[in-house]
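Submission sheet (multi-component)
Chains listed below:
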Amino acid sequence: MGSFKGHALPGSFFLVAGIWWTGKHSLWHATRRNKNIGSTRLASRASQRRLEIIESSVVLFFSFVGMLAEQFAAGGPRLQLYDFAEKHWEYLMNWQHATMYLFFGLAATVNLIVHTTEVAPLALDRLMLAIAFFNEGFLFFYHLHGRSMLDVHVHQLLLFAIFGEAVVAFLEVFHRGNIILELLRCTLTVLQGSWFWQIGYVLYPPHGPEWDLNDHNNMMFITMCYSWHLAFAMLIVSALYCTVSCVVRSRLRRTPPMEMGLLKPRDPESEDEIL
Amino acid sequence: MGSFKGHALPGSFFLVAGIWWTGKHSLWHATRRNKNIGSTRLASRASQRRLEIIESSVVLFFSFVGMLAEQFAAGGPRLQLYDFAEKHWEYLMNWQHATMYLFFGLAATVNLIVHTTEVAPLALDRLMLAIAFFNEGFLFFYHLHGRSMLDVHVHQLLLFAIFGEAVVAFLEVFHRGNIILELLRCTLTVLQGSWFWQIGYVLYPPHGPEWDLNDHNNMMFITMCYSWHLAFAMLIVSALYCTVSCVVRSRLRRTPPMEMGLLKPRDPESEDEIL
Amino acid sequence: MGSFKGHALPGSFFLVAGIWWTGKHSLWHATRRNKNIGSTRLASRASQRRLEIIESSVVLFFSFVGMLAEQFAAGGPRLQLYDFAEKHWEYLMNWQHATMYLFFGLAATVNLIVHTTEVAPLALDRLMLAIAFFNEGFLFFYHLHGRSMLDVHVHQLLLFAIFGEAVVAFLEVFHRGNIILELLRCTLTVLQGSWFWQIGYVLYPPHGPEWDLNDHNNMMFITMCYSWHLAFAMLIVSALYCTVSCVVRSRLRRTPPMEMGLLKPRDPESEDEIL
Amino acid sequence: MGSFKGHALPGSFFLVAGIWWTGKHSLWHATRRNKNIGSTRLASRASQRRLEIIESSVVLFFSFVGMLAEQFAAGGPRLQLYDFAEKHWEYLMNWQHATMYLFFGLAATVNLIVHTTEVAPLALDRLMLAIAFFNEGFLFFYHLHGRSMLDVHVHQLLLFAIFGEAVVAFLEVFHRGNIILELLRCTLTVLQGSWFWQIGYVLYPPHGPEWDLNDHNNMMFITMCYSWHLAFAMLIVSALYCTVSCVVRSRLRRTPPMEMGLLKPRDPESEDEIL
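Outcome: structure written.
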């Protein structure tokens, strides 16, 4: 029903996504703040768009691969949903995971459309992200029936991060470009990633003894451990943010903006804040 | 206590309402965005108002018919609420359904008043819609006592869509004309409609075998199935939105706005965004 | 532990408060909308302030009387909280009701201070109202332990109105003068008032037979009945709003603003919307 | 597992913090409102920044001391987390308390960085405060397993104040400088402080008889008592706010702003409201 690798893999993805987003949003925020000293050299509107398209394509690719792997890897349902002979559902876990990937794939698709064409409103990408996270949390929420106490508990803690991200992404529909919300979303993504690893270590310890899944002291430790993961995620995100800010500033100071006179008075950078 | 038709009928209404709303809001959004190339020919303020009046009248008519049908159709209470002889309430289900229709009828009435007279503030239509959906969810919520597990579960899932719509409509009181919220409301309406059909198929399968209402695997499948309905609803709404956007744009491009000189400088279109 | 009169009395107060607020806010909204045709004759800034002071004084007076009545009426605790001889708390119900009155008294006091002096920020009156309603709901929430099913249910339904009012009043801190929120608050106040009467009739029927407090059909009827009370409250509030709007407009049309030339260009009316 | 002093100590800290914040925000609000009569003499932008830095340093110092005390005071874990010999977690309570202090320390660190450098966005201090309070409530929430009824209840009541503060601090990210939210946060901090003292008196009465922790009447009294603490906190905060307002105004009136001509037309005070 699960394995260490089955938790480490999504954990790694979310860790990478969180760190990537932190870098991206930090760079853009630094660009916006230092516009007057020519920061648009570092991240012009066109390069931002290109970055978004690459990111969406990568997410789309991996969610597609994920869906295929859940279906056709060893022990997968191979698109068969119901066993009519024995009258029971087949491989519901795999189907649920594939459904989660599907929603992240949809979010990536919408992101692609939003940033390549003009047809869709810009804020739609955040709404789709909110729906994808909500869907992930929704499926996890009804996933936990009849498991042991600690197993339920570690997954419930995960829901704080997931639903938190859904709420923050939804708020971003109305407050687009708010760096506070963006960094909070990055932090929760890193938290989710590192917590997936923690779940793997608790439920399927790769070496060392098994955890007693019904010990109340273990539950209390795990709760505290979640706080530590949150502190760790905040540390990572803020370190990265500071690094990017300082690098951008020092690079801008070293090379004065020569081409200043060539800048058009009304640059399209400001579109970024428009809904 | 229920039947396949009793779920398919409201399901069809919500499906039609969701698709209608998607078309309406997509058209108006396209009109607002392309105002500079003469899009007001396609949907002027007067025609928008006429559309709203027609929509409200139709909703009012159907909710009135629905109330009459619940009361006077075969096996209805015929306005009798309490059986004093045998001391019990009569046909509470029919009365509850009639109450739901009553609130949608009230919302339609207020919509009519708002769009024909000047007396009521514009945002009142969204508030009444939010209250109508909240009331529907509220009655469903206390509707579920003592049913079998799967029956309760499929109705609980319905509550996500209903309360979601209530919240989105309430947010629209403050963010009127936000296309993101409008499309989200349309999506949830389509979801609610298609899920009513699904409930009908699960609880009263018209052909084929009965579902085991206490099997945990069925519950897990149904949860995932809800996600699929959501994905399907998003697909429908976005396909419709794209079609309307493209058609509006291509029609505007084909026929250049000849009557441009006749346009008054301060057109009343902008009233639309005012609260 | 309770009586018919003990529910009818607060019910009447809330009904009167709801109707009074509806009239007040409708009048002011009509005044604001018709300012250009001289509506400030009907409700000038000074008269608004006078009205607020009178309202606050009345509320303060009644909450003071209420506290005294709970303490010193027949069967009250007379300020004695703990019976040291028999080691138990005295008359906790009376003390709880007095606490509820205390918070409404505090809200009225703050309202007085806000509208007579300049020292406090204007939005504080809505915050105190939100806290007073929250406190009422909070005490009711922990009030229900160990009662019969229907008794708990009718009080839980009351909480929807109470916490709803708390939330709406808190939103008004940020959206002061939004007529939609004001009318919603009025509606919920009327609902609360009429529901107190309903609770009195259900739990302590003054004539006629007792209700079976553990019958599930009664519970389902009561839930639906709550929706009807809500519809009734919306009807009352909207009828009153329309009447006031029409009266204001017709009076303004009959008597053209003669004194127009005497109006100062920058009238202090607009302060009303400032936070 | 707990003691009177263990609740009185954090209680005193929160009381002091609440009163300090009330004074600070009242002073700044009075400064902003009376800017035209030269109030910037009393609290210039530079002195505000100095105050913030001192405050953060003090909080940082005490949370560091708190962490050390939890680890190395008599009966502390001395940084040992797991007893491998007897296979159980060591001193989980101390570790949990240290974790709470850690988050307040992190919030203070970020506050320091925000107010000494330009690298971080201003609103980050409120977000970190919200996260610190959320983390405190989160750990308390999972802290209560298997205790007696009244013990659980008094800690649950505490959660209202803690999560309330988290929400208010999060709202301040978007509505910075809103005096209503600031005073509400101060009130909840004072409430939290005085309630810690109350918990100490209830669970570990320093003199007098023990409380019966399973008596329902005690629970009802305690709930009402919480309302009284809230009223008391509101009284303290509003008295302090009025005092500061009056003192500022009277001092400004006594000494007319001589140096008015020296003021630059565009003073940097207004930066305060910028996100």
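Remark: Chain C has one domain: 4-264.
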